[in-house]
Amino acid sequence: MKNTITFIIIIAICGFATAQTQMPNNKFEEWSTTDKGNAIPKHWHSYGDGDCQLKGIYSWGCGPMKKNHSNRVTGHTGYGCEIYSTSLAGNLVNGVLTTGQMQFASPEDNSPDNYTYTDKDNKLGHKAAMAFTGRPDSVYFWCKFEMKKPSNVAIAKFHLHGNIAYRDVSSHSAATAQKGKIGNAFCAFSDPNDQKWHQYKFKFTYYDEQNKVVKTSSRTPSYILACFSTNKITKGGSNGDKLIIDDIVMIYNKRLSYINVNGEPLPGFNADKTDYTFYCDNTSELPVFTAGAQSQNATVRIEQPSSDNGHVARIIVTHDDGEKEYRINVCKRLVADL
Q1: Which residues of the chain have pLDDT under 50?
Q2: Cβ contacts of residue 331 below 8 Å, gap of 6+?
Q3: What domains appear along the chain, each with residue ranges and CATH number?
Q4: Which residue, 145, 170, 174, 146, is CA-closest to 159?
Q5: pTM (2 decimals)?
Q6: DSSP at 62
């Protein structure tokens, strides 16, 4: 009985260690509510559950918190999430969608007391913290604009951070120092003014504990704080501006940058091609293969060809979301009789 209990405990612990390399509900197919003007996709948040701490006459500014300013609409595939700006007492309020908790504690727009943060301790009971353990190379997402002025620029921020209540303030930039920051992708993208869906691609930048840019991160994130806004400027744009978001995908590049054989480039190498045949004069003297990954966050393991594995070299590229294998079949060159 004791061994059985121990085995069950081990399984339970391992179950909690599952890697989270894509954002939950990243395609916006699951919704907590679909009320017009107040729809909100699961695992995401907006004004509707924001923490408004304004007092006195400034508490009128809490009005936007009554609705999320978002709708469930037809998306790039399936459903998408539409966020829109609105006007309140002559003030423009940007449409916002985030994985975190929104806090408003000052009437000043750019006050550091107004921010979005990862509520990892669930202090407000909204579960506004998205667990995430991946170190992606890029983020891809689809958007469609419905703006009053084509010159408008929307923004999306993706913060990878440790086990802290990480904050995103309106003045946040890609280089802003903050304890616990591991990586981020800052995405400013313009309205192409064609009413069509477009895919946007942005790279992640990684940092060390001193906030210096590094090629690869040895630290594993605990959470991701994502924020979309109809405009990169607070109160920017026009009343009724709309941004429709769909299909957010984290990209983990498991492609090789090269394969060398005995120090020379493998003939016909293509990063997207995974199966090769290499001819040599004598399989009793097998070639030695080396390789390198395109992503600094990926690792490469090489199994050299031998008589035990059928003269097949295997190159395995491992990233946070899995593996990609390249195979090279080593064959003896046949020489035709003269």
Answers
A1: 1-17, 337-338
A2: 277, 278, 279, 280, 283, 311
A3: 20-251 (2.60.120.260), 256-332 (2.60.40)
A4: 174
A5: 0.89
A6: G
